[in-house]
Structures are given as C-alpha cells and as structure tokens.
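To the wet lab folks,

You asked to see what we're planning to order before we commit. Fair enough. Below is the target structure as tokens, and below that is the sequence we designed to fit it. If anything looks off to you, flag it before the synthesis order goes out.
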C-alpha cells in the first residue's frame, strides 16, 4: 500500500471513528495543581483494522473493551 494511500485511509478512518478526549484532574501533588490526560481511541469489532492503525501511527495499544467482550479498543495515551 502506498504511503499516500495509507495516510489518507488512516486520516479518514480516524475522522469517522476516532475519539479524542481530555480529562482535567485536580491534584495537589503536581506542579500546577491539575493533571491533564489526553486520550485518543478507536473502538472496532475487527482487531485487524486496529492493528493496521497501530502500525501506521507507530504507537498505542489494543485491548478488549471492558464490559463489551465482542469489541476491541485501540488507545493512545500516557500509558501507551
């Protein structure tokens, strides 16, 4: 698959099915009193699609979605 095609597929897929979220947590033990946790995720039934995304982006992890055994979750976060 060509690099241009891969970039187009990945960006289109993320635009349609990706989710970006940011949590802001108040904590006294960090420098400014808050911790910011950005997370990117995609949920799918087909793990192969998520494996393709992980290889293309070069980061992240894939797990079973908690509470929904038939779904996979690709996550890019601090723990990735």
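Sequence we intend to order:
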């Amino acid at each position: 698959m060509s690099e241009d095609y891969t970039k187009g597929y990945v960006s289109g897929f993320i635009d349609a099915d990706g989710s970006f979220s940011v949590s802001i947590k108040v904590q006294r033990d960090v420098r400014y009193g808050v911790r910011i946790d950005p997370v990117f995720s995609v949920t799918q039934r087909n793990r192969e699609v998520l494996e393709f995304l992980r290889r293309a982006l070069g980061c992240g992890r894939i797990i079973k979605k908690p509470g929904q055994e038939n779904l996979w979750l690709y996550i890019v976060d601090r723990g990735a």
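Structural context that might help your review: DSSP finds two helices and four strands in the chain. The chain has a mean pLDDT of 90.

Thanks,
Computational group
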